[in-house]
Specification:
209 residues, TIM Barrel
Length: 209
């Protein structure tokens, strides 16, 4: 799973998806692939998450993870459904410890130096900076990350087409998580051509960064 996770990070942008309808999983996957991002973080913010992960991961051409993971039961559900990485909004030691014990890639959310030191204590070298923009964006990230030369970050929350390039140019940023190209309204509205277009634009911004 770690090799798959490295491939996800290599795309530099991870689409963060909250999807309500399982039937939209296939056209969403096809739209992302056509746009050049064959990966997604499916958040456990909807009842459809487990089935969507299973549908998209089962294709074989998508790298799929689970987000908004709050408890071990959700980790188990996600992995059984085919997820290859776990993302949490905060630093839950129980979830992190379980993932590490079972060799499951996990990126818990951090927002303070204390959170970062907890992650280091568990042997992690990449974490999610969340909610990035609400906590001061790059200015805050630069300040809190300075003492931790071994740590890389995946800023998520408020990332969009207007600021993604700036984030990706920061040396401590491994990748970003964003939902602007896969908003729930676009998915529910069946606007998959728009998703493909926005994804292509995001990939182009990443390539220039």
């Amino acid at each position: 799973m770690w090799e798959k996770f490295k491939k996800v990070i290599g795309h530099r942008i991870v689409p963060v998806v909250a999807i309500q309808e399982v039937e939209n999983a296939t056209p969403l996957a096809e739209a992302l692939i056509a746009g050049g991002l064959p990966c997604a973080e499916i958040t456990f913010r909807t009842a459809a998450a487990e089935a969507v992960i299973e549908s998209m991961a089962g294709r074989g051409d998508m790298l799929v993870g689970a987000g908004t993971v709050l408890k071990i039961e959700q980790v188990k559900m996600a992995i059984d459904a085919g997820a290859c990485f776990i993302v949490a909004p905060g630093f839950n030691p129980t979830v992190v410890e379980y993932c590490i014990k079972h060799a499951i890639p996990v990126t818990p959310g951090v927002a303070t130096p204390t959170d970062i030191e907890k992650a280091i204590g568990f042997g992690l070298d990449i974490v999610k900076f969340f909610p990035a923009e609400a906590f001061g964006g790059l200015k805050t990230l630069q300040a809190i990350s300075a003492p931790y030369t071994m740590m890389k970050f995946i800023p998520t929350g408020g990332i969009n087409a207007g600021n993604v390039a700036e984030y990706l140019r920061h040396p401590k940023v491994a990748a970003v998580g964003g939902s602007w190209m896969v908003s729930s309204s676009l998915i529910s509205g069946g606007q998959f051509e728009t998703i493909t277009r926005l994804t292509k634009e995001a990939v182009a911004l990443a390539e220039k960064s």
